[in-house]
Design brief:
Beta Polymerase, domain 2, 3 helices
C-alpha cells in the first residue's frame, strides 16, 4: 500500500474520528485525531493487520502558545508493510491531558514520562507518571516556549 492508498484507507476507516489527514511534500503522512477517538484509533492502527503499526518509534510534543495548544506527536512504524505514520493530537495548553497509549505500545511509557516532565501533559491511566529528568518538586516545564530560567540551580554540597 503506497502513501496515497494508506491515507485513503485511514480516511475511510476512521471517518468522523479524524480532523484531517495529509501527505507533506516530504512524503510524510500525518493524521490529526479527535481527543475522544485518540485511544481507539491508535489501538486499531496497532491491531488491524492492514495497518500493523506495531512500533512507536517516538512520542513527543510541540508547544504552540499563540494557539493555546500543545500537540502530541506520535511516530508509528509498520515493519510488516514498511510504512510510517505520524499521529497528532492537540491538547489545551492550560491543562493539557490525553489518555496514555502505553497499553498499546510499551515504548510510550518513558516517552510519555518525558513529555509530562518537559511539557506538563498529563497522560491519564499511565502506570508511573512522574518526572524523569527534572527534580520531583520542580514546578516548571522547560520545553514550553514561555519557559524562563528563574535561577534554579542545584548547588553542590
Amino acid at each position: 500500500m503506497n502513501m496515497d492508498e494508506l491515507k485513503a484507507k485511514i480516511e475511510a476507516d476512521f471517518k468522523g474520528h479524524i480532523l484531517s489527514a495529509f501527505i507533506t511534500p516530504q512524503k510524510e503522512l500525518i493524521v490529526i485525531l479527535e481527543l475522544e477517538s485518540y485511544l481507539s484509533v491508535c489501538q486499531k492502527l496497532h491491531d488491524i493487520p492492514e495497518y500493523g503499526f506495531q512500533h512507536l518509534s517516538c512520542l513527543t510534543a510541540v508547544d504552540y502558545p499563540k494557539e493555546n495548544k500543545i500537540t502530541i506527536v506520535n511516530h508509528l512504524w509498520s515493519y510488516q508493510h514498511a510504512h510510517q505514520l505520524t499521529v497528532k493530537l492537540d491538547t489545551v495548553r492550560d491543562y493539557p491531558k490525553a489518555p496514555t497509549v502505553e497499553n498499546i505500545w510499551k515504548s510510550a511509557n518513558w516517552f510519555e514520562r518525558e513529555v509530562f516532565d518537559l511539557y506538563g501533559i498529563t497522560f491519564e491511566g499511565h502506570s508511573d507518571l512522574r518526572r524523569i529528568m527534572m527534580p520531583d518538586d520542580y514546578q516548571k516545564y522547560p520545553l514550553r516556549k514561555d519557559f524562563s530560567d528563574d535561577g534554579f540551580i542545584i548547588k553542590p554540597n
